[in-house]
């Protein structure tokens, strides 16, 4: 139930008296709305760990690492050469991992 915190407070003596039976009776116009959700649509959006994805197709094109890019050996992300912080023993590290 929504509460108006800006409204003046009412002491128990000032509250209107409402019969308990009147509160217990359900009024037909005051039903709570329930969202119409199809459970099968929700289930399709979840991916379970260990699920068999052998029938799935990739919808993106995978491009190999370009000549001006490198793979950071700390975060394993592909970065542009301008993000190279250091190279040690053939292993390259980005500025984010070194900073």
Automatic annotation (TrEMBL):
What this protein is called in its record is: DUF4193 domain-containing protein
Q: Which Pfam families match?
A: DUF4193
User: Per the UniProt entry, what species is this protein from, by scientific name?
Assistant: Arthrobacter nitrophenolicus
Where are the stretches annotated Disordered? 1-38
Indicate, by first and last residue, each region the UniProt record lists as having compositional bias (Basic and acidic residues).
21-34
Q: Which InterPro entries match?
A: DUF4193
């Amino acid at each position: 139930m929504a509460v108006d915190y800006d409204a003046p407070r009412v002491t128990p003596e000032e509250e209107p008296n409402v019969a308990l039976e009147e509160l217990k009776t359900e009024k037909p116009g005051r039903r709570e709305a329930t969202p119409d959700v199809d459970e099968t649509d929700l289930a399709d959006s979840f991916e379970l760990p260990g699920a068999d994805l052998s029938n799935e197709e990739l919808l993106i094109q995978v491009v190999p690492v370009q000549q001006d890019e490198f793979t950071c050996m700390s975060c394993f992300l592909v970065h542009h050469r301008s993000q190279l912080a250091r190279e040690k023993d053939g292993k390259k590290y980005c500025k984010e991992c070194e900073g």
